[in-house]
């Protein structure tokens, strides 16, 4: 590579010398031609220089940096595949083919070779596999996908606080930096050698999206409704189920945190301590206080000596509050339950959870693009009841990325004696 780069730079230099000579002679046509040749070589030289720099930076001997490089490359390839998949699922032709397949109970296996369903198979093949989704169903149109996600926004979603990634494959991994720079630069003497020190450390976190789904029975009359009406009905059914599944996966990550108590009367001091000492400064600055209804109500009722609430209204969002500048969010008790200890003794009472941290660094929700739907008017009870059974499938996974980015606290309310 070094020899090719050296030769390319020399050829470009020679072209520029020739261009200067032609310009001195007043040969503008010849000058422009040589300059065009020299300019054309710029991209080639820059590409070789970039490659050489990357090979030097991501030396195979440095496993962590090599993994980071490979991970970034895989992520870029996934993004390109996702864009291609979106393009394949766009347009009226795809919507018509998808709706027709649903109405006629056409599956991935039975519709193969039918020209009218070619757009559906093209999208499956673009998504990877032979084709991918053969055990699920046809990928939903972009329009239907967006309809479902718009409906999902009406529900409380833990994913709003976590990092989310759309992936095209069933499995993959991410390189997560585990250690930040903690030392200053080295002193370098005149003509001295610069030695690498305090190198970042990376850890490979793997994900494997799993299949989640459900079935809804749709009347024949509704199946014959206009396409927009049919998709709207299915999105109203499917969207809350997707949200509940996301929440369950992310809640499992939060449940892995070990809780410590906040004693009633010491809430402000203990939460400040969690922000000041329980978290690394970088995570603390980006922290969110995630409560359930019990813990949020408890904090909302606290007042200082001047009868002012300790939660400060967010001027940019009238219904939102902050604590020491950090957003305070809450979810239903059904999603983030409190716990009650009924045994006798000093631990008897209620425990209201508060999760504090930079959740986008703490965990990632991986969603596979896109949702899959299939139908049948033959299987199950569909034939006897003149209905169609529609099955929706979503594929996702949640992984803890940096455990130190979040902590769990519980407000302890002792039981009355």
From TrEMBL:
Protein localization: Virion
Classification via InterPro entries: Phage_capsid, Phage_capsid-like_C
Domain Phage capsid-like C-terminal span(s) in chain numbering: 136-407
SUPFAM superfamilies from the UniProt entry: Major capsid protein gp5
Gene3D superfamilies per record: hypothetical protein PF0899 domain, Major capsid protein gp5
Superkingdom classification of source: Bacteria
NCBIfam families named among the record's database cross-references: major_cap_HK97
Protein name: Phage major capsid protein
Organism ancestry: Bacteria, Bacillati, Bacillota, Clostridia, Eubacteriales
């Amino acid at each position: 590579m070094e020899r090719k780069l050296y030769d390319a730079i020399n050829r470009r230099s020679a072209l520029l010398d020739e261009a200067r000579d032609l310009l001195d002679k007043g040969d503008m046509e010849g000058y422009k031609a040589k300059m065009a040749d020299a300019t054309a070589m710029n991209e080639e030289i820059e590409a070789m220089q970039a490659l050489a720099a990357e090979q030097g930076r991501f030396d195979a001997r440095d496993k962590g940096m090599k993994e980071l490089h490979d991970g970034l490359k895989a992520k870029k390839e996934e993004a390109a595949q996702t864009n291609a998949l979106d393009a394949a699922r766009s347009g009226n032709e795809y919507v018509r083919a998808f709706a027709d397949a649903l109405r006629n109970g056409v599956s991935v296996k039975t519709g193969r070779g039918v020209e009218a369903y070619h757009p559906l198979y093209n999208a499956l093949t673009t998504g990877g596999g032979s084709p991918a989704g053969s055990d699920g169903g046809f990928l939903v149109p972009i329009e239907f996908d967006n309809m479902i996600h718009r409906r999902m926004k009406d529900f409380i979603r833990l994913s709003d606080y976590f990092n989310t990634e759309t992936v095209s494959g069933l499995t993959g991994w991410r390189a997560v930096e585990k250690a930040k720079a903690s030392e200053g630069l080295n002193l370098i003497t005149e003509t001295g050698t610069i030695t690498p020190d305090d190198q970042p450390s990376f850890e490979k976190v793997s994900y494997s999206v799993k299949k989640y789904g459900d079935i809804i029975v749709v009347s024949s009359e509704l199946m014959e409704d206009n396409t927009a009406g049919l998709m709207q009905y299915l999105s109203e059914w499917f969207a809350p189920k997707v949200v509940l599944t996301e929440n369950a996966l992310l809640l499992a990550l939060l449940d892995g945190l070990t809780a410590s108590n906040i004693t009633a009367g010491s809430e402000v001091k203990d939460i400040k301590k969690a922000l000041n000492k329980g978290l690394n400064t970088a995570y603390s600055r980006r922290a969110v206080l995630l409560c359930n209804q019990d813990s949020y109500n408890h904090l909302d009722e606290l007042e200082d000596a001047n009868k002012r609430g300790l939660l400060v209204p967010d001027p940019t969002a009238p219904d939102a509050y902050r604590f020491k500048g950090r957003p305070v969010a809450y979810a239903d008790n059904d999603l983030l339950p409190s716990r009650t200890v009924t045994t006798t003794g000093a631990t008897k009472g209620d425990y209201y959870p508060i999760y504090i941290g930079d959740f986008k660094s703490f965990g990632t929700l991986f969603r596979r693009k896109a949702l899959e739907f299939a139908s049948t008017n033959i299987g199950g009870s569909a034939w006897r009841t003149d209905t169609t059974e529609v099955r929706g499938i979503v594929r996702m996974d949640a992984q803890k990325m940096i455990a130190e980015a979040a902590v769990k606290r519980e407000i302890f309310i002792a039981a009355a004696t």
